[in-house]
């Protein structure tokens, strides 16, 4: 993916953010315990953070299949769409995310991931460097300027700002 300035961005932001939309007739299951297996790969920890503990325990311990309406209720899935529309919906969500300031999107994703198990006070401390980096970027000037001028916004995703202020990042490429 390239910005207007011709710079290459990393992975599409939507793929980093949330589970994709799911067809309404697709069952959701985590039936590993039914087969005497442990749901590895962070499944237990992630599920219990994403939805209420009691719902996560029910799904994980019984191994039962749930339909999408039930999965949507506690927020286990973000979008339940008619069958055959999941890709189209995911592309729409990805386009909405991609249209936003890439540095801000990246910082939000990092903050969401890195602060999930922290107290609010700890999370505020983690987001402070992101705030400083974003507000010091050319993109943070461009967004409000474009809004005020009632025109399309063009973000440059300054690689130097991203790598210097966000810490570890893939090498520019």
UniProtKB/TrEMBL annotation:
InterPro entries: ClpP/crotonase-like_dom_sf, Enoyl-CoA_hydra/iso, Enoyl-CoA_hydra_C. Pfam families: ECH_1. Residues 1-29 are annotated as: Disordered. The keyword Lyase applies. Residues 1-13 have a biased composition (Basic residues). Keywords: Lipid metabolism, Lyase. Signal peptide: none annotated. It comes from the Bacteria. Belongs to the enoyl-CoA hydratase/isomerase family. This is Enoyl-CoA hydratase-related protein. It comes from Nonomuraea insulae.
């Amino acid at each position: 993916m390239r910005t207007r300035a011709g710079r290459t961005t990393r992975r599409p932001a939507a793929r980093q953010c949330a589970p994709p939309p799911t067809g309404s007739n697709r069952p959701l299951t985590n039936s590993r315990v039914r087969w005497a297996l442990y749901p590895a790969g962070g499944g237990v920890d992630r599920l219990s953070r994403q939805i209420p503990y009691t719902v996560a325990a029910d799904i994980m311990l019984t191994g039962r299949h749930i339909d999408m309406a039930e999965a949507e209720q506690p927020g286990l899935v973000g979008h339940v769409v008619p069958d055959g529309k999941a890709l189209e919906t995911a592309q729409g969500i990805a386009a909405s995310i991609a249209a936003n300031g890439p540095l801000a999107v990246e910082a939000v994703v990092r903050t969401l991931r890195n602060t999930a198990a922290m107290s609010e006070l700890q999370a505020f401390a983690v987001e402070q460097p992101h705030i400083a980096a974003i507000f010091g970027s050319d993109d943070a000037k461009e967004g409000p300027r474009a809004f005020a001028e009632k025109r399309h916004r063009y973000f440059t995703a300054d690689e130097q700002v991203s790598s210097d202020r966000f810490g570890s990042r893939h090498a520019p490429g």
